[in-house]
Amino acid sequence: PTLLRRTLVAAASAALLSASFATLAQDIKPRLIRFGYGLNEQSNQGRAAKVFADAVEKASGGKMKVRAIGASALGPDVQMQNSLIGGAQEMMVGSTATLVGITKEMALWDTPFLISNAKEADTLLDGPIGDKIRAKLQDKGLVGLAYWENGFRNLTNSKRAITKMEDLGGIKLRVMQNNVFLESFKTLGANAVPMAFSELFSALETNTVDGQENPFNTILSSKFYEVQKYMTVTNHVYSPWIVMASKKWWDQLSKDEQKILSDAAIASRDFERKDTRDEASRAVADLKAKGMQVNELSPAEAGRMRDKLTRVYALIGADVGMDLWNETQAELAKLRKK
Ligand code: TF8
């Protein structure tokens, strides 16, 4: 036991020493970073927030401490964005969809049926188009560090199985606080109601709304299966999340501190995408086991919806600018030819 203990002590001090050597040369101050998010700790978002926090602490030799605060305890997305802009909160991760009021180009990611698989998502988001849109946040007081995966969105409701567009008629459907989502679901015939995510569970529980749409992971982690009978696999849009810092605060950090945060955002992104995809691949079985009745939207019905949304596509093109819209279509065409 003494030998073992001595070895452990030696190993521990060696680790400490190398950590402090690495960080000594760097310009790092003690920092407390409040990192807010909307889902609960047990969600894919919560797990990745923890990975981010650990990566920052480790890379800074324990000087930079990240307090990951979930379940909208710091407020819903829009409120946190404003706290970041004002400098009252350091960091957050949330939906790009709730950012369109600040940076209209973000609406590109709300385009129904734009992205059809993970490869396309990662290529667009991590490439020049994603970078360009992310950079637009800077003028608005936000620093976008990385896109995480929220995922392909699917419909749930408490009324009936949705097998065709007409089935949406009269369904009171909660949508995100975003014009593209509102217009899309109105156009498809639903009674779309914008609402913050933090209010959604109880709105479903009390039948204030009949349904909602979110990726499998969220339907699971937020326990929507307790208050929703039907799920339709529509994959109607791919939603990203974005990790952001307050620019007011970011500008006070040293280059080394900024690099630690950027690197941790990328590392947690890679973890998060893999974790989310793993969970999503098992989710339909899990949700069925929880009692949900699941059906898949046929490609023909998805096609009818797409046709119906022509007006919305024009609206998005006008919002994000035709250059960006055309560049995106060209990039997707290139990927699909490969
Ligand atoms: C939604 C979004 C949410 C995210 C999350 C709170 O439906 O998909 O899951 O905004 O960060 O509001």
Task: Explain what the structure shows.
This protein is of the alpha/beta class and 338 residues long. It has a single domain, classed as 3-Layer(aba) Sandwich (D-Maltodextrin-Binding Protein, domain 2). Helix content is 48%, strand content 19%. The chain has 13 helices and 10 strands. It has helices spanning 2-24, 44-59, 77-86, 118-126, 128-135, 179-187, 200-205, 216-221, 247-250, 255-289, 299-308, 310-320, 322-337, and strands at 31-36, 64-69, 91-95, 142-157, 172-175, 191-194, 211-215, 230-233, 238-246, 293-296. The strands form 2 sheets. Strands 1, 2, 3, 4, 7, 8, 9 and 10 form an 8-stranded mixed β-sheet that branches. A two-stranded parallel sheet has the order 5-6. The longest helix is centred in the C-terminal third of the chain and has 35 residues, at 255-289. The protein is globular, with a radius of gyration of 22 Å. Bound molecules: (2R,3S,4S,5S)-2,3,4,5-tetrahydroxyhexanoic acid. (2R,3S,4S,5S)-2,3,4,5-tetrahydroxyhexanoic acid is lined by residues 37-39, 77, 94-95, 150, 176, 197, 214, 218, 239, 241.
